[in-house]
């Protein structure tokens, strides 16, 4: 869906940082996008086009999912719902535990902010293995809503995150793939 021009601009803007945060990792630094307001607007326009008329709410995953997710929700004129690490939101909350490479983690959202039957877009900046995003989708479903879409700025194709999300029968979109 993204134009070749937008993809090229993003590829020229996003910085590859070798061996960060640990040796062997190629970190994709998206922060230079925020130095170019016009490019940021183009990204939002593209992500909004993917979801226009298809969702009733946007959930953003802490913390980088907020950077684009809030703007997507505002442009779509739908609510934005925070999905946060455990212990960051006041009660009442709904939680979902998920496994990490070493151990586990918990994400939460405030109970009652996601409404039964809502079509929800889950947004994050990057899709890697899909574990956090899968947990976010389970949080949405626990509240009787429907995960209708997932969107990401970047998808790391070699880590099979898309495969983990296919069970939700939702549209999956990333502007860039590495």
Brief overview:
With 178 residues, the protein is an alpha/beta fold.
Distinctive features:
178 residues; alpha/beta
Question: Mind sketching the topology for me?
Answer:
Elements: H1 4-13, E1 15-18, E2 26-29, H2 37-51, E3 57-61, H3 65-76, E4 80-85, E5 93-100, E6 103-110, E7 119-127, H4 131-142, E8 146-155, H5 161-165, E9 171-177
Question: What would your notes on this structure say?
Answer:
The structure is a single chain. The chain has a 7-stranded mixed sheet, with helices on both faces. Strands 1-2 form a two-stranded antiparallel ribbon. The protein has helices at 4-13, 37-51, 65-76, 131-142, 161-165, and strands at residues 15-18, 26-29, 57-61, 80-85, 93-100, 103-110, 119-127, 146-155, 171-177. The longest helix is centred in the N-terminal third of the chain and has 15 residues, at 37-51. With 178 residues, the chain is α/β, with parallel strands linked by helices.
């Amino acid at each position: 869906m993204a134009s070749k021009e937008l993809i090229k601009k993003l590829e020229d803007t996003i910085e590859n940082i070798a061996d960060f945060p640990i040796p062997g990792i190629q970190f994709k630094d998206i922060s230079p996008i925020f130095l170019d307001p016009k490019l940021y607007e183009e990204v939002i326009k593209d992500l909004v086009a993917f979801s226009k008329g298809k969702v009733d709410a946007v959930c953003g995953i802490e913390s980088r999912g907020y950077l684009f997710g809030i703007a997507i929700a505002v442009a779509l004129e739908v609510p934005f719902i925070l999905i946060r690490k455990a212990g960051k939101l006041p009660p009442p909350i709904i939680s979902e535990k998920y496994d990490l490479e070493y151990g586990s983690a918990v994400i939460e959202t405030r109970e009652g902010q996601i409404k039964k039957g809502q079509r929800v877009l889950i947004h994050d900046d990057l899709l890697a293995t899909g574990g956090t995003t899968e947990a976010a989708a389970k949080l949405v479903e626990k509240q009787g809503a429907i995960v209708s879409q997932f969107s990401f700025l970047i998808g790391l194709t070699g880590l099979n995150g898309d495969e983990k999300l296919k069970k939700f029968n939702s549209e999956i979109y990333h502007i860039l793939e590495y």
